[in-house]
Amino acid sequence: MKKYSAILFDWDGTAVTSRKAPADEACAAMKPLLAKGIPLVIISGTTYENIAGGKLESFFTVEELQNLYLGLGRGAYQYAYTKEGRPYIFRDLLPDREGTLLIHEICFNIHQTLLRDYGFATDIVFTRPNYCKIDLMPEHDRGDQLFMQSDELGALKDKLINHGIQGGLQHLLDLAEELGEEKGMKVLSTCDAKYLEVGISSKSDNADLIMEKLRERGIKPENCAFFGDEYVGIEKGIYGSDSFMRTEITKVGDFFDVSEVEGDRPEGVQRLGGGVTTFLNFLKEQAKE
Known about the structure:
Helix content is 31%, strand content 20%. The chain is of the alpha/beta class. The protein folds into 2 domains: 6-93 and 202-287, Rossmann fold (3-Layer(aba) Sandwich), CATH 3.40.50.1000; 97-199, Hypothetical Protein, Haloacid Dehalogenase-like Hydrolase, Chain: A, domain 2, CATH 3.30.1240. The strands form 3 sheets. Strands 5-4-3-2-1-10-13-14 form an 8-stranded mixed sheet. It has a 4-stranded antiparallel sheet with strand order 6-7-9-8, covered by helices on one side. The protein starts with 5 loop residues before the first strand and ends with a helix.
């Protein structure tokens, strides 16, 4: 097995089965690599408080934490650890209050347009740092399984057609871009079937900004592995949120998908399947001499 200089990975659905699941097994698999000086990077749309209950640092020694980074909030926050083992944000991509209000206005306009023109009802989660989550299927409850489920792609496509949205998901992405331009803001949109997320950054920003840190340590992107469970295509040319880790800078790395969901993946992404078990076994193998 190829040995990697750094490993970047999604959290929910890749390292743990759900946000509320114990993080012990994932952290146990991470620990030997961190101890050997191999940087690990968690890239997730969530916040620090939702990674291992906000106590991720308690699983590792101060020395191990010097090799751990997090890119969170869909590009909003980039974390490292102090020499005392405390997490700190070394780079953020946050709007000011007016910018936040503008994002909220754009997303509310999306909600109104879909309801007015198509009778397509949505909910909006406003409490995110630099984006909103527009719930396209509020009638569908994921429970603790906050990552994309195998039945959601078909359900979304059926719902769009039933409401007369012939352009599919691309229509929603185009609508977000159009309404953003009307307000003078360039927005970035991603979708995991249930949620359309509209804001000013993405996991691409997480990946590129933390790659700058890794390059300072002499690590090249071609020697990095990128793991996720949401690469699958929702429509032709439109892929899940983990696909945004693959940027012009990182595309020379190796990308792996542990999802069991059927469908197309972006060029260069290898489907492994097996979910969390596959990823944790990969970490254990990487730690072996």
